Amino acid sequence: MENKGHPSIGKIYKHLHDHPEISWHENNTTDYIERLLGKTSFRVQRFNDCPGVVAELGQGKPCVAIRADIDALWQEVDGEFRANHSCGHDAHMSIVLHTLFALEERRADWKGTLRVIFQPAEETIEGAIAMVEKGVVDDVDYLFGLHLRPIQELRSGEFSPAIQHGAVRFLEGRIEGEDAHGARPHLNKNAIELGAELVQLLNNIHVDPMVPHSAKVTSFHSGGKSTNIIPGRATFSIDVRAQTNEVMDELMAKIKSACHALSNLHGTGVQVDEKAQVPAAVINEEAASYLEQGILKVRGEDALKPAIQTTGGDDFHFYTIRKPELKASMLAVGCDLQPGLHHPHMTFDQSAMPDASRVLVETVIGVLGN
After folding, report:
1. CB-based contacts of 151: which residues, under 8 Å, 6+ apart?
2. pLDDT given for residue 311 in this prediction
3. Are 362 and 355 within 8 A, CB to CB?
4. Of 349, 326, 337, residue with least CA distance to 140
5. Which residues are annotated as a binding site for Mn(2+)?
6. What DSSP string runs through 105-132?
């Protein structure tokens, strides 16, 4: 897909990949996107209190929006902690920018409003909510997102019209007791032993086995350098996942009940607080059908695959949780991504990006086409 006067999709990708920025610090990324948009006829909106940019072309109904996440992860790469695009957001931005360029060139083929949301802070599960609160989807009828998929889910050149992300909750807890001498275990409750009991209680939680789910302790910190002290205090983290919002609610109720029971049994405070959450996907069949038709038009039947089900999460789904009237779905892009998402040395087949852009172009024209 060539667009006169615009850099190639590969050149855009290389710039974004080489200049990653973490959540809420995507200022240079925002500047770069704005410079590219300045060469188009799109109306551009920035925010005075956060990174991110919204571009709009056309007017009236219907209104179709495309969302691209723009932040990178902070992780250790070859012994050095730094910002790193290991989740594919650099590709998402590149694909959506070229979609925007192509739809401007094909302006005669559609009517209505096209809005493109370059959203910050997806990795911290905060950006979508911020955009909703800024009103960027208040008048949107259809919302489309996209995400690169691991090689285990899709091969390069394959696409799916929906990603059934699961719900995710991140919990932080604490055990609030007092230390005791190692010779006097009757004077306190060993926080490490309480932690072990908590793990067993989580393992004994049962919900519908037909719905994928898990609840596991992912960090536990207690005690110090003095080995003759029985620690009475601890902090811990719990990662909770479920394929549906209903099962997530059931899991959360059981986890809180387990902590309460443990506290009552031992007379020691066991508190747990929710620090972040991602809802499970709410996929609109009509929106997914437009993506399906876009895939068929660009790549044909052999490339069209069923909806992807994954226990991973994405804050994209906050848009539909907060605005239930939105008709939304995410395009799953096969690109032989490996070893996996969030791996510090993640790689993918970059030749899949132009076709992904074409699919989005045909999808939007399918909705807005004359």
Report:
1. 336, 337, 338
2. 82
3. no
4. 326
5. 87, 89, 123, 147, 342
6. HTGGGB-SEEEEEEE--TTTT-HHHHHH
H-state helical runs in 115-218:
127-133, 191-203
The model's pLDDT over 42-86, given as tens digits with 9 standing for 90+, comes to 999 999 999 999 999 999 999 999 999 999 999 999 999 999 999
Q: What is the pTM of this model?
A: 0.89
167-278: CATH topology: Alpha-Beta Plaits (3.30.70)
d(CA 12, CA 19): 11
Closest by Cα among 327, 177, 335 to 262: 177
φ, ψ at 176 (rounded to 5°): -115, 85
Alpha helix ranges (H) inside 187-317: 191-203, 245-266, 285-299
Considering the segment(s) 9-166+281-368 as one domain, its CATH architecture is 3-Layer(aba) Sandwich (3.40)
Give pLDDT tens digits for 258-297.
999 999 999 999 999 999 899 999 899 999 999 999 999 9
pLDDT tens for 17-47 read 999 999 999 999 999 999 999 999 999 999 9
Please report, in range form, the residues annotated as the binding site. Answer: 87, 89, 123, 147, 342
> DSSP letters along 259-277, please?
HHHHHHHHTSEEEEEEEEE
Cis peptide, bond prior to residue 354, ω within 30 of zero: no
Task: Give Cβ neighbours of residue 224 (< 8 Å, ≥ 6 apart).
Answer: 231
Task: Answer yes or no: are the C-beta atoms of 96 and 29 closer than 8 Å.
Answer: no
The strand pairing partners of 180, in sequence order, are 230
Residue pointed to by tokens 């007092």? 178
Locate the domains of the chain by residue range: 9-166+281-368, 167-278
